[in-house]
Amino acid sequence: MVRQRRAIRIPEDPLSGMELPYPLRSYQREGVTFFIQNQSALLADEMGLGKTVQTILAIRFLAHVNLCRRVLSPAAASHGSGRGR
Fold it and tell me: In percent, how much of the chain has pLDDT > 70?
């Protein structure tokens, strides 16, 4: 079975109309757009540059245009399982 890729029209500024907690930097906007335009992507850079925010905004956009229904979000083992210890 061949999986067909859905073509979506990406607005020039996919984040317009989204409530943001603070203005994004240009590289963060570029990262969100990159995520949205590609079927899969890996984002890696220095700590503290906004990878989490970029990922969440990309997921919000994809959910808004009905291209994302579920998300698997792993947590670091150092944060614990959240279950009774």
Answer: 78
